[in-house]
């Protein structure tokens, strides 16, 4: 199922775009099981931690995520640490989750 999301493209997300409903969240999260819905400052986000053998591999992965973000014109938080990258997707304009976040999470998984 992840491949279905990973083949889709993000759409322009405006302030009035609908957030993912609870039902949609339950369905979409099954397609990206390694991602965790987190609420920070009242904003629902998708987060996943990726582990690597060293800093250089983590850095290279961070660069791939950044290239994906630019290609999709949808930008996550990327925390680069020694042997670890934490990626957090959410839609800033709607202060929550949009289908775009699930598409980008699935595409991030494909970068491994």
Order of helices and strands: HHEEHEEH
Return the domain count: 1
**Rg for CA atoms:** 13 Å
CATH overall fold name? Gyrase A, domain 2
> How would a textbook summarize the main sheet?
4 strands, antiparallel
Q: What is the class in the CATH system?
A: Alpha Beta
Secondary-structure-derived class: alpha+beta
| Number of beta strands | 4
Q: Stretches where pLDDT falls below 50 for ≥5 residues? A: none
> How far apart are the termini?
17 Å
Percent helix: 25-40%
Question: How would you describe the overall organization of this protein?
Answer:
This protein is of the alpha+beta class and 112 residues long. The chain has a single domain, classed as Gyrase A, domain 2 (2-Layer Sandwich), CATH 3.30.1360.20. It has helices spanning 2-6, 22-29, 55-72, 99-110, and strands spanning 36-40, 43-51, 77-81, 84-89. The relative contact order is 0.26.
Short précis:
By secondary structure, this protein is of the alpha+beta class. It has helices at residues 2-6, 22-29, 55-72, 99-110, and strands at 36-40, 43-51, 77-81, 84-89.
Which helices and strands, and how do they pair?
Elements: H1 2-6, H2 22-29, E1 36-40, E2 43-51, H3 55-72, E3 77-81, E4 84-89, H4 99-110
Antiparallel strand pairs: 1-2, 2-4, 3-4
